[in-house]
Structure formats: C-alpha cells, structure tokens
C-alpha cells in the first residue's frame, strides 16, 4: 500500500512537470520575441522595401511582420476603422431617422439626419404611409441642416463615378442614378423601383451622361432636391394632391410631426453593406454623422475627424494615426500595420460583417499605386489570426501574398500542434 501511494505521488509530480513543460513550449511558440518575429519572415519574394505586413495570433501576439511600424496609405481598408468607431458609438442596432412635418401653411417638411440607405424602396414605403396621413399638401420643404452644405471630401474628384458621390443630410440612392439611353434618345431607369423623374432626366441630359450608374451632382443641395422631387412624384402617383414646389427651409417648433421613419437597416447592416460595396459615400455619411452626434450639428468633416481621433486615442490607445476623412479616398490618411492590428483586435466581434472567402475575412483597398488588404485568416487550430498587408507600389501580387500567408499560418499551427503533443510513454497512468 505504501509503495502504491509513493508511485501515485511520483506520477502526479511527473504529470505536473509535463504539463508545465507543455505550457511553456506552447507559450514560447505562440509568443515569439520581436526579433524572432522579424527573423521568421515568410513570403519574402512578395515583399519590397515600400511594403508592410503583419500577422498575429488570436491573442494579438505578432508572429510575422516586416516594417510594421512604418506609416502607410491604407486606402479603403480605413473603412474598418470608420466601421468600428460608429458601431461602438451608436451601437449595432442604431437606426437612422428621417422626420416629416406639416406646418400651418400645409407645407410638407422633411428633415434628414444623414441616412445612407434612403433608397427608392424606402421612399416608396414612406410615400404610402404619408398618403394615409395627408390627402394633400402645398410645397415640399427640405431641411438638410443636420449636415453642413459645404463638405468637401479630400480625394474626391468631380467625376460622375459613384465613388465620387457627395454626402449630405438628405440623400437618395447614394446620390446616383442607374439608366440607359435608347437609340431614339429616350432615357429610362434600369431599376424598376426608381422612376425616371423629369428632375433626373434633365440632369442626365445637361451633363451628357452615358448609360450606367452615375453620380449626377457634387452639390449636397441638388442631392436633397432629388429626395424631394422623387418623393413628390411617388405621392402624386398615390393620389395625393399637390401644386407646390420643392425648396429649402427649416423645421420650426410650431410644425406638427406627422411621421418619423426609422431605418429598417440597423447600423450593423449599414456597416456590412458599406464594407462589402466599399462605398465611399456610405463611409463618409456615417463618419460625419458620428461627428454630429458627438459634437452637435451641423455635421462637418472636421467634427468626424475629431470624434474618430478621440476614439482612436481613448479606446485603441494609438497616437500616430492620421485621418482626414472616413472612406480612404485621400492619400493623406496614414497608419501602420501595428495600428491596423489594434483596430482588428477591437473589430473581432464584428468580423462576420466583412467579406469572406475560404479561410479569409477581409477588406481590400486600392488607389493608384496602392493595394492593401486586412482582416483575419481562420486557422482550425489557432482561430482567427489578424493580418494587415500594405503594398505602397505598383505591380504587386496580393493573391500570391494571401496564399503564402495562409500557408505560413497553417504551418505555424502545425508546428504548435507538434511541439505540445504528448508521447504515449509519458501518459499518466490511471488508478
């Protein structure tokens, strides 16, 4: 009996030592020193002196990196930071609102708060609700004062491409129109839910726009007019009587609130659509809305920058990120791969909002001579490993880099599994 107790004590002590050794081996593999992370650089043939990349374990420990402290142009990967800031401030379930009032002169007033998804389907639903609430009105008066009307996005050009669309407190259909021209010159909408109203046809002809989806203005007031004209068209089609015009004004305390539309798209859906489409319009809409919420209206780009910089310092503890807008359009935005790692670590609860392909959840970014990709490489053994790749040059091969990093992560996981495996002869016997 004494011999048996001694053996039990011996095996328990031996098991404890084995567990400690296993833990230390796993810890050493998962937490290499900075010098080790720099020495074990995979994918060397894909990386140049102008580039940066970083891969970290699910615990946030860097396992591979090169020039990860250097400031790079993030392009549209900056949208991950914008998404994080607005999700944390507003909450995933936040709903944008648009208010409708009737004044003493029987004018219908519309006050916007920057809803980026005020699309034709939504306006059609709103028109049906307003039809039940009023049989007639005189003018439509637009209150777009929640945002400044003088917002200019750095990096935005005066083109008709959708990614150069302006922002504003009242916008419909991302300030774009999808249409075609027939040989006889007739212009028609290619979206069943969006009628080709005279306001839009006039703008298209005046600009000489070709078929496709096009931005028709760079003026936030013209964008708001589109909302008013489109809604007036839908109301008249529903039988509501109106003989007035669409113009600008403001809501006063004497006006009667008749309906508040709360978006059917919560903030997490807004963010998901923004990330998947890489919409510069949506990114800067929520960016300016953040500034207006934190510092009060009117929303401006400066307030959006200030609110986001405050979030970066308080919640992420970062001091060197430079941002001038929320979409990544500007080359004046700068951050490092280590900065992006901090963003990705905080963004993990929302990673399902990113695009995904195979093992990778990701957001891409591109400008002339710039390519970037950030996100998570899923490893069955390790979990989601954060990564950031910044190619600040032309002629880069992002696909090859991703394939290489996926392989490197899987090999690191295999090494970890091999190092902590217990040989059968070391198994602790049961009693």
Structural commentary:
The protein is of the alpha+beta class and 431 residues long. The protein is 39% helix and 19% strand. The protein folds into 2 domains: 206 residues, 3-Layer(aba) Sandwich (Beta-lactamase), CATH 3.40.710; 169 residues, 3-Layer(bba) Sandwich (D-tyrosyl-trna(Tyr) Deacylase, Chain: A), CATH 3.50.80.20. The chain has a 6-stranded antiparallel β-sheet, with helices on both faces. The N terminus and C terminus are likely disordered.
Shape: elongated
**CATH homologous superfamily grouping of the largest domain:** DD-peptidase/beta-lactamase superfamily
| Succession of helices and strands | HHEEHEEHEEEEHEHEEEHHHHEEEEH
Strand content: 15-25%
Mean pLDDT score, rounded? Answer: 88
Largest sheet: 6 strands, antiparallel
Radius of gyration: 28 Å
Task: State the oligomer.
Answer: single chain
Number of helices: 11
Structural class by secondary-structure content:
alpha+beta
Low-confidence stretches: 1-39, 419-431
CA distance, first residue to last residue: 13 Å
Summarize the structure.
This protein has 431 residues and is α+β, with helices and mostly antiparallel strands. The protein has helices spanning 2-30, 34-39, 78-90, 120-133, 198-207, 220-237, 267-277, 280-295, 301-316, 337-347, 398-419; strands spanning 51-56, 62-66, 97-102, 108-112, 136-137, 140-143, 176-181, 187-189, 212-215, 241-242, 246-248, 256-262, 355-357, 360-367, 370-379, 383-391. Helix content is 39%, strand content 19%.
